[in-house]
């Protein structure tokens, strides 16, 4: 997982607004997110299978996820709700975050190293968003 560790800056996105709609993010928050400077992502691994991911969206928020692979943790999703999340490691360069709520489609976020880019795929129901980060 050392390949994902480091600082990343958003380079490009596809279907980000559609994804926020699928999550139930309010219109004012969606519009603000689309005009703000590009977010940065800092991924650290202080111990084996433990990660701290800090997503910073200037002016709007800093979202911190502190977790151990395979152990459920409480996470704040973009619509402001708290949900239990479990992260699995599919390979040395791929993490999968899965949040489930009864009677709703799962919310799945994948972070994967592809070449020199980190590709973040966000899926809620039938909406899939791709956000590509480059090393900062």
UniProtKB/TrEMBL annotation:
One of its GO terms (molecular function) is lipid binding. Gene3D superfamilies: 2.40.128.20. Residues 5-135 form the Lipocalin/cytosolic fatty-acid binding domain. InterPro entries: Calycin, Fatty_acid-bd, ILBP, Lipocln_cytosolic_FA-bd_dom. Belongs to the calycin superfamily. Fatty-acid binding protein (FABP) family. This is Cellular retinoic acid-binding protein 1.
């Amino acid at each position: 997982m050392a390949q994902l560790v480091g600082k990343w800056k958003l380079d490009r996105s596809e279907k980000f607004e559609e994804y926020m709609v699928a999550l139930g993010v309010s219109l004012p928050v969606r519009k603000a997110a689309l005009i703000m400077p590009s977010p940065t992502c800092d991924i650290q691994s202080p111990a084996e299978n433990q990660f701290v991911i800090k997503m910073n969206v200037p002016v709007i928020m800093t979202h911190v996820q502190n977790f151990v692979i395979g152990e459920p943790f409480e996470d704040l999703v973009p619509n402001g709700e708290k949900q239990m999340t479990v992260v699995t490691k599919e390979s040395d360069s791929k993490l999968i975050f899965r949040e489930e709520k009864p009677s709703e489609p799962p919310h799945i976020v994948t972070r994967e190293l592809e070449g020199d880019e980190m590709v973040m795929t966000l899926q809620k129901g039938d909406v899939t968003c791709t956000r590509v980060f480059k090393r900062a």
